[in-house]
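Record pair follows.
FIRST:
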Amino acid sequence: MDSPAVAQLFRQLFSHRASQCLVRGARPALAQAARPPQTQHRGRATTAAPRAPRLGEGETKRESRWQPRRNAFPHERTEEFERYPMVTADILRSRRERPRRVRMLLRDFIEDSLYNPHYGYFSKQVVIFSPGEPFDFPTLPSEHAFFQSLRHRYTAFEDALDYQEPNDLRQLWHTPTELFSPYYGEAIASFIVHDYKLRNYPYHDLIIYEMGAGNGTMMLNILDYIRDRYPEVYERTRYRIIEISSQLADLQQQGLGHSAYARGHADKVEIINKSIFDWDQYVSSPCFFLALEVFDNFAHDALKYDYQTGAPYQSHVVVDPRGELFEYYSRTLDPVAKDFIERREAACKDQGVDFPHPLSGSRFMNSLRALLPFRGSLTTPEYIPTRLMQFFYMLYQKFPNHRLISSDFHQLSDAVEGINAPVVQTRYKRQMIPVSTPLVHQGYFDILFPTDFDVIQPLYSGITGRYAKTSSHGAFMSGWADIEETQTQNGENPLLSWYKNASVMITTH
């Protein structure tokens, strides 16, 4: 049954200008949550179809302005679609309005939806939840008491925003950096200083790059920790933020003007407002590279495989004259997708790693699936992290002496259909609204993917020539955080028990 709430949401989305609607999504909304945010939780939703509007150029009677985005490809319009030019996210970067009459790869569609400077999800009104004063965990009776206190602060935070400017479409984003400040950042700093003193001190400066720094809280927590506990290292420390969002870069710069000057860090920090994929400087010095909750929003390609031949087909997106989105699969793979398939095969074979695949199972069963009514000859989609592979290439080419510290979700519940499939969601009236496809109106939805570290770790090593290890979020924090500071009176420790669906991958040598 179609949901009236979802239909109302989409009408609201299309009735607002992009600049009035775009901010960062909650994971999940704590004011509505009934449990700690260890994993994503959402239900499935479709859009209701109101009375059909007047048809525009390129439309047919079979289409509806509010139809679900996973409808069948309109083959009667193939000839029309073939005339559309192929574009990329880089080509669309200068556009101020969402494109029409174009074709592109799925990864370019996702990249454009999330990062376009004018209408992308991360490019407007970014609101990141800050709890204010750090939680005093030893005075809290239990983890449940912490959660209730956090819910109260979350509600008060958004109430204050609504008092200034009510917004049913506001999106909020919270991270472990903010929820467990300063202890989460101090754990990262403890590892960095230990590794730096073991390998590079005093012959090299401590250079830290952080990608996607949010409010800048991690930066301040790390620099405070190093200054207070290791003044000799602090003198050698340089901190550089690489931030693709102009709005967040401005927010971080404002934070420097208030917090960092008061703390004395201003001369330690440089904010570089550009995408890491536009980086053109060669950094030969040893450095640490922080990528915390960044991989999940890297664009992916989608592949389907022929049940009988095993041949891969790559996803493309068509945008018609009125902005309606359609997906089709082509037997021709672009060089990036080909490279990923070859790299993954070689890296996983070398490390003896098996990876999930739509054709896993017997050839006989796959042949039977191809004969089932309505299934078609292609498998369900597999989403491959091609943009993450390109990030590893960037580390290899521009930061050859880096040490990567990354953390992200290895599992996300209630994702769309497919292997390694994303969660696609937006927030409306403080409630999460999910959809069942990544083909959504550009800029209004968070599209986040799980990271398969069993595959990513050997892929990283195969590209960069550097070895890495992966641990759970809790195991890493147990080894490097001051866990007594985050333990409640009954012995529970939210820093260790939350984010159980997250892993940490670090370069070892």
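SECOND:
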Amino acid sequence: MREIFLRVRGDDPASLVRAAACCWSWRGIMSHPQFAHDYRKFHGAAPVLGFLYNNHHMTTHIDVRGQRRWYSSHFVSTATFRPPACRDRRKWRVLDSRHGLALFDTPKSHEDFLVYDLLTGEHWEIHADPKCHYFMWWPDDDDDLHACLRCNATLLCAKDRCDHLDCHGGPFRVAFVGCDYTGRAAHAAVYSSETRQWTDVTSVEHEHYIHYTGHSAVVGDKVYVPCMESDSLIVYNMGQRELSVINPPFVVQAITLMGVEDGMPLFVSVVKPRLLLWSLETGPGGAARWTRHRVIELKSLLPTPVLLDNSGVTPVGFAEGVGVIFLSTKAGLYTIELSSRRSKKVHGMQSIEKAIPYMSFYTGEWGPLLASDEASPAVGGGTTI
């Protein structure tokens, strides 16, 4: 039975919950600490439990500056068990999610940002260093910070030699890459949860604004961030605290940075009815080479009316490690597993700009199956998945 339980899909934790409720023997198997370790090791990359996205709203009243815009973040479960801390959050904007943590912009609260573990409910406040304000927000707009954030934020696990299978409660870093309001230079700094300190600001001359809602990619100590008005990338080497610019060797129509696959930044372009996947390789001298390494036919994966629509299909998210891409269409949001070529409609909303996968092994404590005085000492109250 233990070998069977180890093979239950990571995105189907409800099956293990039901199995643990059947009898003391099965619950004892899954409550043993070694089972949690072996379960994660067997499945490797954490499963996609759902995704987060933002929705913007306009105030109903009009002041001297016109209508005001504010955001709310939403969580959509794609697994069989909804994590208890995963919920919609009014006037929060999700910026990034990695290794079981999610980063939110919360300027209407007393802190500037929050890092949240959506499974355990733990959260950590981040207060922006005043020396970073000039590249994180537009100036003179303190009353409407939800509308003027203009830096790209990347959340990273900071555990030493971590395999990222169970990062709950561990230290983290957040890399902020933005530009000043003149749009002539890019700047970056990193916040560490271990020291609760910010690094010095690193800068490089650059003529384009940072794409603050775009996806970032992390390869080793390097963070890749896209620009808004060009296909160039800003690369922030956190270890050496250096910023550099990569210009694409050729122009690919509507190419989008999505994340990392096989240790290289992954880009996606849609040329109906095909999905083209590109990798970016950089040589010792910084020379960039883009390689198209995969073509996926969409005819059998998406409804025909979607492919005939001139507005097309837009890649809006990518789950690293499991190879699942999110595509926004007029018929709703779809996921496509790159390895199996299976597609699934996961949301009916048509205008999701950015889907941020939330990946983690669900962790929770089993409640007692019997009265407390009847509890078996062999079961314990351990963590399971």
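COMMENT: The CA atoms of residues 87 and 96 lie 16 Å apart.
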